[in-house]
Amino acid sequence: MIPVSGFEGRRVAVFGLGRSGITAARALQAGGAIPILWDDGEAGRAQAKAEGFTVEDLAAADWSDFAALVLSPGAPLTHPRPHWTVDLARAAGVPVLGDIELFARALADRPKDQRPRVVAITGTNGKSTTTALIGWVLKSAGLTVHVGGNIGVGVLALPEPTPEAVYVIEVSSYQLDLTTTFAPDVAILTNISPDHLDRHGGMDGYVAAKARIFQAQGPDAVALIGVDESWGQGIARDLAQRVITISTRPSPPRGEGYVAQPGVILNGGEPIADLTAARSLPGRHNAQNAAFAYATARALGVSHDAAVAGLLSFPGLAHRMEAVGRLGSVRFINDSKATNADAARQALASYPSVFWIAGGVPKAGGIKDLTDLFPRIAKAYLIGDAAPAFAETLGDAPHVIARTLDDAVAAAAADAASADGDQIVLLSPACASFDQFKDFEARGEAFRAAVLALGAVPETAS
Question: What is the pLDDT confidence band of residue 280, given thresholds at 50, 70 and 90?
Fold first, then answer.
């Protein structure tokens, strides 16, 4: 745990008692604060009481007595309208913070020569794979590395800082909205495409939230930015710190940067890393993730050879282009983390032909932006709420409404087995999971279970 000081003996309101909220309360208490907790759900309040925290209805509390409000990233800060706790905090002049900001302040309280280094990753797609990949490469190079944030362990639950450590932190746009002093040594923006627009009041607000990852960086810090989209290009132009661009386009980037192509990373048009042996990094998007990891490692002093060795040995991230099994000539790929069309595009583009399982709770626009990839779809198997709309969009492309994931897996496996040559059954839903599953992890595990139930042999990276 990372104790958070600066609030000794003062009451701090904490709303939202999921992973980040309850962890923040523990860290505040460890630093000497008096956290006052509340959640709309009885289960969260019960857990807090069981741990001995003070649970108090914040709607009836005296806000003039609070030093801060620590808000769960799941509660809206601005849109569609501020959460009621935000209204109360602002009316009382109480600052609204999140767990990433508390983490930043905990590090800033230490002498400069005692602070660890921090790598932070955000973006619409690819941030979890990039986070896991950077952590793997740095650990493989012998560094002391702690990985967490929006992936895995909440940031304040990570081990207490030591000077030689490197924190590799995934941060969401919701978390960034609640930061002011967060200043990573290396800040990464993988890419931007429309997502979570209801929470940010539109695309401008969403882009601004993502750009906050760079707001407090000093001149010696490094900004790694994906520049395939105009939003990333604009952010890169506006920064004063050292900017390294990452592109998947074949022409070399202007200034300092890398080009990521399937199976290779290039610098100045010259190949610097051959990724063809990296089984867990297929496709152009994974080459881009690898370029971010390589650039980060080099910025932190890792040698070229050690950085490349780490890339080639990466075992992959669960639920993201994860090979889960093989049944005869059919491989099953779990890409459950693809919760929007842009993420699904990365997977579809990685294979010449797929038996595609898609559907769930659709995002704005559905799969209309994927029409150029429809020729790669041998057949689609549509599940969940999105099935009728996706069927209409697919038009003449082969498809069937399977409704449930188990039915989709069985049908796709049978069709793929009857086709000639090696085949791919791909779960890449392009949708949220909440109509049938509690989250994308549960959906991915259900896919794995359905595949193995057919008699498939589990696959492991090598």
Answer: confident
